[in-house]
Each structure stands twice: as C-alpha cells, then as structure tokens.
Amino acid sequence: MALEYELTLAGETPVEQIAERALPDPSERPTGTPPLLSADLYERYGFGVTVLADDDGYLEVRADQGRWEWEPASNVSLTFRMDKDAAPEWTVINMLTVIRRVLSTGPENAAFILNGNELLFTRFDGTLVKHNHADWWSSYPGADDLITQ
C-alpha cells in the first residue's frame, strides 16, 4: 500500500517549468512527453513524482470545516507517491522541501491533498491556510516550518 500526496496548481504553467521549479537538478527532474512527466526518486528522496497538466480540474476533499471543493479549469498537479512503510519523517520532509520550492517560485493558487481525500493546505491570492494541523502537520517535526507561504 502506498501514500499519495498531490499538489494542484491552478493555471497553464507548462509542466516542464513546474518540474524545473520543483527539482532544479537535471539529474532529478521528471522527464517524459508533456503533458505527463515522471521521475523515480525513491532511493534519493523516498518517493516517485509525476507532473501532469489538465484542463478540467475538480477537487472534493475533507477539510477542517467540512467538505471543500475547487474547480481549477487549467491546472498542473505534482503527485508524490511513497511506500507506506518508508521512513515517514524523511520522505515527508523531502517532499515538503520540493513543494516549498514550487510555492516560493510562483504565484499560483494551490491545494495540497493527502490520498485524494484530506486537505492539508490551500493557497489563494498568496494566503496560505493549513488544514488538519492536529493530526497531520504536528506528526512531522519541522513540517510546519517548511511551508509558510
């Protein structure tokens, strides 16, 4: 069984640009034929990552205040897949480091979701709002400090 995290970014930013922002080292960068790029980074970071462009997004997940929906027309998603048995602190901190890089290098509205059903944060118009703080964010030392914008 695996855990899957997805960062959805609104807009038409090319997948190649998102991949470069996420993983600037060419040896780590997802490759492939747009609209889908991927990289196996299990040994290095504990996850595999895909970058996918879509022109008809829809998200419906649980949030702190109940159900949350978002329909970003054009969007790019970064999906991080990790083994459930992997060292969670190490893989999560590695993933959040990549996410921080993406958020700090672009203004896109964003949502970050665990396993397709649990909202962990949103960023709209530059304002970041974290969700599931007690159960998720507090479980990973340093995670809360990595994502601040």
Key features?
149 residues; alpha+beta; TATA-Binding Protein; seven-stranded antiparallel sheet; two-stranded antiparallel ribbon; 9 strands
Describe this structure in words.
With 149 residues, this protein is α+β, with helices and mostly antiparallel strands. The chain has one domain (2-143): TATA-Binding Protein, CATH 3.30.310. The protein is 22% helix and 39% strand. The chain is built from four helices and nine strands. The chain has helices spanning 15-22, 42-45, 88-104, 143-146, and strands spanning 2-10, 36-41, 47-54, 59-63, 66-70, 75-83, 110-114, 118-124, 127-130. The radius of gyration is 14 Å and the shape is globular. The model has no long low-confidence stretch (mean pLDDT 95).
Mean pLDDT: 95
- Indicate how many domains the architecture comprises: 1
Q: What is the share of helical residues?
A: 10-25%
How can the largest sheet be summarized? 7 strands, antiparallel
- State the name of the first-level CATH class: Alpha Beta
List unreliable stretches of 5+ residues. none
Strand coverage percent: 35-45%
**Using DSSP, what is the number of strands?**
9
Class of secondary structure makeup: alpha+beta
CATH topology term: TATA-Binding Protein
Q: What form results from the Cα inertia axes?
A: globular
How would you sum up this structure in a few lines?
The protein is α+β, with helices and mostly antiparallel strands and 149 residues long. The chain is built from 4 helices and 9 strands.
